[in-house]
Amino acid sequence: xxxxxxxxxxxxxxxxxxxxxxxxxxxxxxxxxxxxxxxxxxxxxxxxxxxxxxxxxxxxxxxxxxxxxxxxxxxxxxxxxxxxxxxxxxxxxxxxxxxxxxxxxxxxxxxxxxxxxxxxxxxxxxxxxxxxxxxxxxxxxxxxxxxxxxxxxxxxxxxxxxxxxxxxxxxxxxxxxxxxxxxxxxxxxxxxxxxx
Length: 196
Known about the structure:
Layout: H1 2-6, E1 14-17, H2 25-43, H3 45-53, H4 59-93, E2 95-99, E3 102-107, E4 113-118, E5 124-128, H5 131-136, E6 139-144, E7 154-159, H6 162-195
Antiparallel strand pairs: 1-2, 2-3, 3-4, 5-6, 6-7
Helix pairs in contact: 2-4
């Protein structure tokens, strides 16, 4: 939370924050296990070839199958590990809080996307979940503002309190707008009183 705390102004209070779901990693773990299993099978390609052909391959074919099997196994293993690490990093590094003035946060580990949007500039907060998210109670949040509309918004994944956070943001936006209306009415009243 160092990033959040260091960027709060002196009269700014945190109203809500996203909470990550470790259950969401189940999909990444399953993906990793399946791809690792396929990669291990690929290492044994010469033995599989021998089993189905029913004769021992010559030494050149055996070397070719061994090298091909290792390369193929890496083609499965690397994406599996990358997906798993990506999910863990997202859960450990992504932060988003709602304050009484703005949405503040950041996403990413190496390539970071920062969020610093005044509540008056937030168009909407989109909360969504897929099949696994509905079953395990987690989802995604997208922050949409004029600055983020070209990219479709800034996404935060594997969030357990999507609907609560969305409601807190919308309530705070309404509170900010009500305060702005009161301030505008007061200024108009002061202007009218000054004209008398």
